[in-house]
What we know:
The protein is of the alpha+beta class. The chain has helices at about 1-5, 10-20, 25-45, 75-85, 115-125, 155-190, and strands spanning about 55-60, 70-75, 90-100, 105-115, 125-135, 140-150. The model has no long low-confidence stretch (mean pLDDT about 85).
Amino acid sequence: MTSRILPxxxxxxxxxxxxxxxxxxxxxxxxxxxxxxFYEDLWFQDRTDKYHQYVADEYxxxxxxxxxxxxxxxxxxxxxxxxxxxNGTMRGNIxxxxxxxxLVVTRWTADYKPETLIGxxxxxxxxxxxxxxxxxxxxxxxxxxxxxHDIDTNQRLKFVLQGLLIGLLIALIPAxxxxxxxxxxxxxxxxxxxxx
Length: 196
């Protein structure tokens, strides 16, 4: 069905604009198809050069971590997908989509197999469920909310290592002072101070 609708997508979008159709059912169906093709091209196939067909020149991203409310150029979507493709192979499938008004919610699963050391260390192998919410204007994605289940990825390793390093640092501080204090006591004893 997707392959039959895709060639008609430019015509449907153009006819909706020319005829002034504001039918929300038609617009939501078109937005769902645009979102579906976005995943197909950038994440399920290595066709990242098509990013500009789906994403506005600038878009707002709300991601886990520090990327909240950040305005990014459309090419950032290509850069992110290229990083994954450069370091491994991906497959994916859309579990379901829900659309209302100018929003499309997609729950999809990404399957990643790293092929480089960077891919193994930073990205890891396996499946990860993702929920994205796209907001559309004029047939382009203008805002993205990204919700990944990172606990199932190598991201948890980052938090484990961070906790380990903080714990080691906390343990090393008193150990450092104890070592210095022990050396000072030894030096004082050598100078003839009596020990108790």
